[in-house]
Each structure stands twice: as structure tokens, then as C-alpha cells.
Amino acid sequence: MSEQQSTTGDAALAVVIRVLGAGLVFGLQVLLARLLPEDGYGGFVTLWTWMLALGSFAALGFAESSVRFLPRYQVRSRHEALGGYWRFGLKTVCGAGLGVMLLAAALAFWLGLDGPNLTVELILLGLPILGLEYYLEGVARSFGWFRLAAVPVYILRPILIGLVCLGLTAAGVDLTLPVVGAVLIGSMGVVVLLMWLLLTRRLRSFQSGRGPVTRGQGRLWLAASLPLLVLSGLDDLVGYADVLVLSLLSEPEIVAVYFAAARALALAGFVAYAMTLVAGRQFAVSHASADRAQLQRGILQSTRLTLWATVVSVVLALAASPLLLGAFGEAYLAGQPVMLVLGLGMIVRAMAGQAGEVLIVLGRQRQGLIVGLGILLIMAVLGVLLVPVLGGLGAAIASATAMVCRTAALSLLLWRTERLQVFSLGLPMFASASVRA
To answer: Over the stretch 348-378, which tens digit does the pLDDT of each residue have?
Structure first.
């Protein structure tokens, strides 16, 4: 069985997991939109979006660099380096998280918890947990344990949040922003604890070395991770910049409608992430084995899978848009034009496949950083110009335009620097393959 065939099977199962997760996340958003007033749900959207947009920064780039280093160490049986990276990354991310929590405590003491300060405090308290979650997820992806990477975060967490919110409502507790924020952060903590326990047990089976991390190793891992901190953070900011700009320039009700439209298209976004779960490891293994032809085949296959699965999911979501948006409430039906524009942008983004993962594996993070800065600037400028005039539709147009620029820039970058082709409109090659756990 070829690595490419196995990856195709893994990707198919990852998509199934993410479809289930998409349904749960969508159901959770509908539930919160029903339980909270419209402006209250808009406040929650603002909190959660800012947290997700900044979460990669809290992982300090180790979630991404793990995909670069751990498959290489595993292929070359460098168990001592593998264990050293795992412990070094864990200590570094936890240490940074402790610093953020101390900052949150200091700001609460000096500024209080009134008005916008409360949202800032909740973000700062949630970021360390989210950063650790990203790191653990990256390590799981690096070993091909995509079920461990996806199930706790995208299936268990929304179930926990929904059940706790329903229980609080049944007990007569008002779901204010502090209450929902505490539920969100607490659920993230449960997920992180579970992932840490499972990863610790699995890594023991690799008999990872317990030797001390040398100063040279630490410098190498930091030097590789910190640029990825900016790169991955920029990628997340690009993904959420439309909602962030909208939250700064519009009323919470408009933000709520826009976010509902984006959530209705969540399946399309999850398709791309499902491929990320398995593609990065395949790229790293091919690169470590110096198999350029296999790397090129894997890149094209991941692009085809990402593109056509995204096309199908976007078409289905748009066809069901009245039902999906109507589930949030009648006022949310105004988000149908936003869904159309965002859906087209997602399809264009999918044409670049997993180009971002390729850049990380090949150590091209500096060029990726330049692209990310440019795309973020384009989206921010267009958002500031269009949102005051067109509202949510303006934010969607800014997002879709930025996705066109991103696909073109990444495809051109990989071709000019590595002579690797990313863009492909061909159909994926499916073959029967057993699926790894």
C-alpha cells in the first residue's frame, strides 16, 4: 500500500470525523443563538473569534514545527530527540501560558472587569489553554493520530459546552457572557487534560529518550518555531479578520448574522482542515526520505481532495441555506448573500490545497510570512473600506478577494522556489486502503 493511498483513506475518515464535528458545532451555535439574546450571542461570537484568532500565537509555533520535526525523528529512529522535543515544547508553551495568566491577573487588578475589560480578561484566560491545545493537536497530527487530534476538540468540546449550558439554563442560571465564557474555558481545560493524558501514554510506546535537551537542540527548535508563531498566527488572523473587522465597525447584531452565515459554511472549512490532519505528516515523511516525486504526488492529491470536497460541501450548504440560517432564527436569513460570497471564497482558497503545510515542512516559513502579511493587509484594508458601506456583505467580499490573492501567491511561491506544483483541477485518485489508527 502506497503512502499516497493510505493518506487518501486517512483523509476520507478525517473528513467523516469533521462532518460529525461540523454538525455538532453548528448545533451548538444554534443552541447558543436561541439561549442568548441576539446582542449577547454577538458578544460571545466576538469573544470566541478573538480567542481563535490569537490562539496560534499562544502555541509559540510549536504546533506547526512539530509537523516538521517529529515525523523526521520517527522515520530516522531518533527517539531521544523525539522525546526531547515533546518535553521542551510542552514546557515552553506552558511557561508562556503562565505568563499570560499573570498578565490577566494584573490587568484585572488595575483595570477591573467592567465593559470591554471583561472580554479582554476572558480572552487572556482562555489563550494559554487554547495554545496548549494547539500544541497537543500538532503533536498528534505529526504521528498520524488524527482521531486523537480531532475527536476531543471538535466532537467532545461542543458536546460539553452544549450540555453544561442546557444544564445551567434548566437550573435557572442566566447565560451571560461571563457564564458562557467560563463554560467555554472550562470545557477547553477538560479537553486539554484528556489529550495530554492520551498523548503521554502513546508516546511511552515509542520509548522516547529521556536524555537532557542540549542547548543546541533548544535553540534549533526555538529558531524553527518562533517564525512559525508569526506565520500560523497570521494565517488564523486572515481566517478571522473579516469577523474581527466587522466586530470593530458594526453592531453585535450584524456580527451575529455574519457569524451564523460563516457557521453554516463550516463544513467547507472543516474539509480543508481534515486534509491538514493527514497531509502534513505525509509531506514531512516524503521530504525526510528525499523522495521528491512522492512529495509532488502527495501535494497534487491533497489539492484535488481539498478542492472537490470543498466544492461539494459549499454547494450543499448554499442549497440548504434557508434551513441552516433559519435554525438560528428568522433574523439570520439575511445572511444568505454573505454565505454565497464566502462560499466562493472558500472554493478559491481550496485551489491552493495544503500549500501552507508544504511551506512549513520545507522550511520556507519566511516567504510564507511575507505572503501572510500581504493577505492580512489586503483583507484589513478592504474590510475597513467596505464594511461601513456594505456591512456584513462587505466583510465577505473582502474575505473572498483575499482568498483569491492567497491562492495565487502560494501557488506562485512554491513553483518559483521549489518547482512544486500546487494548483490542480483534476479529480483525486481513490484506491482501497486500510486506515491507520
So the answer is: 998 988 888 788 778 777 788 888 888 989 9
80: left (phi over 0), alpha (psi -120 to 50) or beta: alpha
What single letter denotes the amino acid at residue 422? Answer: V
Distance CA 51, CA 133 (A): 13
Q: How far apart are CA 59 and CA 89, in angstroms?
A: 9
Enumerate residues 6+ apart whose C-beta is below 8 A from 71. Answer: 142, 143, 281, 284, 285, 288
Among residues 433, 286, 407, the alpha carbon closest in space to that of 355 is found at 407
**Do residues 179 and 168 touch, judged by C-beta distance below 8 A?**
yes
Compute and round to an integer the Cα radius of gyration of the chain. 21
Q: What residues contact residue 379 under an 8 Å CB cut-off, 6+ apart?
A: 238, 241, 242, 245, 398, 399, 401, 402
- pTM of this structure: 0.72
Grid cell at residue 332: 439570520
What does the alpha-carbon distance between residue 131 and residue 404 come to, in Å, rounded to a whole number? 29
Distance CA 302, CA 356 (A): 12
pLDDT digits (tens, 9 = 90+) for 176-201: 888 888 999 999 999 999 999 999 98
In this structure, which long-range contacts are made by residues 329-335, counting pairs with CB atoms below 8 Å and at least 24 apart in sequence?
329/33, 329/34, 329/38, 331/38, 331/253, 331/257, 332/33, 332/256, 332/257, 332/260, 332/261, 334/257, 335/257, 335/258, 335/260, 335/261, 335/264, 335/392
Residues sharing a CB contact under 8 Å with residue 126, sequence separation 6 or more, in sequence order: 51, 181, 184, 185, 188
What is the full DSSP assignment across 356-422? HHHHHHTT-HHHHHHHHHHHHHHHHHHHHHHHHHHTHHHHHHHHHHHHHHHHHHHHHHHHHHH----
